[in-house]
Amino acid sequence: MFDFVRKHTKWMMFLMFLLIIPAFVLVGVDGFRQVNAGGDTVAKVGSTGITQGEWDFAHKNEVDRLRQSMPNLDAKMLDSASARYASLERMVREKVLAEAVLTSRVSTSDARLARELQRDQTIASLRKPDGSLDLERYKQLAASQGLSTEGFEARVRRDLSLQQVENGVLSTSFSPKVLAETALNAFFERREIQVARFNASEYASKIAPTDAELEAFYSANTALFKAPESADIEYLVLDLESIKKTITLNEQELKAYYEQNVASLSGKEERRASHVLITAPKTATDADRKKAKERAEALLADLRKAPDSFAEVARKNSQDPGSAPNGGDLDFFGRGAMVKPFEDAAFALKKGEISAVVESDFGFHIIRVTDIKTPKQKTFEELRASMESELKTQQAQRKFAEVAEAFTNGVYEQSDGLKPVAEKLKLELKIATNVQRKASPAMTGPLANAKFLEALFSADSIEKRRNTEAVELGSNQLIAGRITQYTPARTIALQEVRTVVRDRLITSRAAEMAKKDGVDKLAAWKNGPAPTLPAPATISREQGQDKNIPAAVLDAALRADPTTLPVWIGVDLGSQGYAIARINKILPRDNAAATTNAAQEHKQYAQWISGAENQAYYAVLKDRFKVEMKVQRPSAASLITQGAEQ
Predict the structure, then answer these.
(1) Domain residues for 363?
(2) Is the pLDDT of residue 9 over 80?
């Protein structure tokens, strides 16, 4: 079928045109959006469903957001089953809280929305030097999230309303000091224990498996001795760096850029100044501000008569505690570092000059410029390398969408090889061998991307050796690949892995022997005379894990019921063997540690309580609004298996 489409591309395009245009007229764009957003329902909140398409789109947005904020984050973590399920849970939570907002008639006023936007640090960074908002950059911020400014503000308003629902619980939570101390003292109590270890390694020398036993173990556990499927591949990566390599700049472009930007490329002018500040905040009364200004003007008159006394006057009269002890010295600063009235005055003065009284939100300043650091203008040749890199980056960013379309179409239309696309777009055709469906934990870069590997090992790619589709790796980065040699998964012959089989069998039987011996000893010691055990150790959650005591033993000993002492417990350590612990004493918490960390621990305990109450409230809301999860939560076992495969 795909061959037919490729051979009759023009006729197919004409046919699709005839079918799609009338459909748009009849159904409309919104209708198509609703169809496209379909798919199986993966969760329901009341009568509202969440489709597979909506889930995929939300998870993609979450992945993009995390990649932007944490570029070094392992991509495999973002594409795992647990990460995808977490995205679905977030969607359900938002819908549940949105229902609670509607039923509770909670709303966010325009005044509160404005206050929230003003407090936002990202939006604050978009302000111009005069304090006004740069509307163009504000639109770009909204557009980067796929929203108009109105849509961005509507989302902030929605988020604030959702927060009100939760804050109604969080703000009413309380944890009395007595209750906190009782719980914390119990949690951090100490226990004296003695541990006897039955290490599997000590039993290994007693095991000598026969050939028949090796064959039986191998036959019963063939899944442990499989070589995974693998492939030799060729692939292309399209990114800004690859586009930059195809761009050639001429001298006229570079010289024009140099003339337009030489001042900023050479560095910024800096000034060193001292000041005398008479504080008068904007909230002060008019009378107080007038009085402060009059004092500043009187000091200015004295400084005009004796300019060299500036440092002494600042030490005695300036109300800026940071600079007054240093004679008012503010060290070097560039534009944008000071409030605008101060900056304008300082950069208008010559070296040694004293300003008139300058009014700012902090009060009234008298400024003296003590030094000027003017950057030396760099020559064209000095800046050539940095200008070439910057101009190529700018042009590559503008060109990426066009080249990306040619890349995407090329790998599809010429699906039997990547060489034509590589030659056309001047990309390097790369080779990789022994690529597997699941990337190893040590793997990084494009070949560690789960989406690309999924496309690479699809049935169409394996059976027909066709190019994969263009897969998006990240911002401005696409990849396509093709299998050149495929090796299916196979069970490795016993003779190839005999040593591994023997080691696994010995390890398994040694662990069984250690466990049996430990269980027998535990029963005997509980009912008979106490044996001689290793020296006692004191453990607690506060001290953390003792390096000589396995975490499983530590956890079991702290959880054991100490009603009747001593208490004996047995802990299966898996392939490491078995351990028996005797809990001898319950010791109170170390008073010094409790006193030192009291404030911080009480705060943490209060957060635990409020978090627990919030989760309980959310559980009530989920029940009230009839939440149904249609997708099974990834089990711990499946996650462990997935990690082992990777």
Answers:
(1) 268-373
(2) no
